[in-house]
What we know:
Distance between the termini: 58 Å
Number of strands: 11
Number of domains: 2
Largest sheet: 6 strands, antiparallel
Radius of gyration: 20 Å
Helix content: 25-40%
Strand content: 25-35%
Low-confidence stretches: 146-150
Amino acid sequence: MTTAHELHARGLREHLAPALRALGLTGWRRTFALPDGTHWVLVGLAERPAADRVSFTFDLSLVRRAAWSAAGLPGHRPDPRVRYGVETWRARIGEVLPVGEDVWWEVLPGPRWQLPLDDAVAAVRHYGLPELRRRAGADLALLAGPAGGLTGEAYLLPAELERVNAALLTAAVARVRRAELTDGALVLTGAWTRGDAVARTVLAGVAEGFLSAGDERFDTVRCRDTLDRELWTFPDRS
Length: 238
């Protein structure tokens, strides 16, 4: 009897990879990219094999090409399955599906073994790629906006954020994209998500450092994602 591992390998080779390439992605085996001049727009296959089955899902990642080059990290391009800390955005595909939580498909021996592969490709087509394209477009608009997209008084210029971002990179947390003063608060913007507990903890330390400087222009530090959605406020007075 053909094992789940053999079926998964066959499905990846004969079905999943060709189907992803038919959607406009380039690549092979487990990492794929959409052609884009300013960003690495990436889809990666994450696997969780067991004795009698193979579970799999997709990692989605958006990285500015300039940021990747400047980071000097190894490899021609980022691996979407790895968190580097230079991402504009990254998520598991389940986060952009209607269920809004982690989703894994399973390949099991039997006559219907290919159905999970079909369903996974449909998820990439209808949810994963549209979200990646939307975020790439929003980030490009941010890059092209007036004064680099700043909406308040610049607190630190990009070059002045290097020390903070170096610490975030060490902790595998996405960098601070901009720091600005708005309505008595220091607002930090970056490719973070509300459910990322590590980012929240590390940014709480960053906020404490900013607040300890005693700058009278702000008494709170607010963190936002790259679409200007509020994530956390420090100190947390809730």
